[in-house]
Write a structure and sequence with these properties.
mainly alpha
């Protein structure tokens, strides 16, 4: 088919343009299409991963109800190895730690809690610090317990951390420091906190006096 002069010029311009920019356009198209495919795959992977982790977590709940600690630990290890970045890994580690504690397996309980301290998100990490410190307190590893409590926690856990520090300090016969810790716990608590009365009792039991809040000016 014959082309007129204007069409030939357009074709020549197109060829020149493609010769100059064709390679770049091709690579940009590959990158865009590749990114789109990767995005779709990632969404599919995330949905599939969440479903699998959820299924394992449900299986763990059944094992917890049956008090089958061995199976609980196997499932926790499986979730941790395959789905470490999911919330299910943190929840299962905390649950497995409680199961191990109830089975008097302190080594496993500490390992599960330490994993959450090192890899968990803020809320789970704060819970794990408190529970790990409690296990260490039971084992009379007082310095290690205080070190664990010294890590960062969310503000809403400040009173619980101070209370637990008080318990550790009492066990070390550091009464003055324990009083300060209990008072700090009370200062961080809401007036209607159900745990407030217990902390007051512990403070008074070691000769402390609950500070009266200052009236607003």
């Amino acid at each position: 088919m014959a082309y007129d002069l204007e069409e030939q010029e357009q074709i020549a311009s197109l060829k020149a343009f493609w010769n100059k920019f064709g390679n770049l356009i091709t690579w940009l198209a590959i990158i865009v299409l590749g990114s789109y495919a990767a995005y779709n795959y990632w969404n599919y992977y995330q949905r599939n991963t969440a479903a699998e982790a959820s299924g394992l977590y449900e299986e763990m709940q059944k094992s917890l109800a049956a008090r089958d600690n061995a199976k609980v630990q196997r499932i926790a290890a499986d979730i941790e190895s395959k789905y470490a970045r999911s919330a299910y890994a943190q929840m299962s580690a905390l649950a497995a730690a409680k199961s191990a504690f109830d089975a008097n397996d302190m080594k496993t309980a500490k390992a599960r809690l330490q994993w959450v301290v090192e890899h968990g998100s803020d809320e789970y990490q704060s819970v794990a610090r408190l529970r790990l410190a409690g296990v260490l307190l039971d084992e009379k590893a007082y310095d290690e317990a205080l070190k664990t409590l010294g890590g960062e926690v969310l503000p809403q856990f400040a009173s619980a951390v101070a209370d637990r520090k008080g318990d550790v300090l009492v066990a070390q016969n550091k009464v003055a420091e324990a009083r300060s810790a209990y008072q700090a716990a009370l200062d961080a608590m809401a007036k209607n906190d159900p745990a407030r009365q217990l902390v007051q009792l512990k403070l008074e039991a070691i000769g402390g006096t609950v500070a009266t809040p200052k009236a607003a000016a």
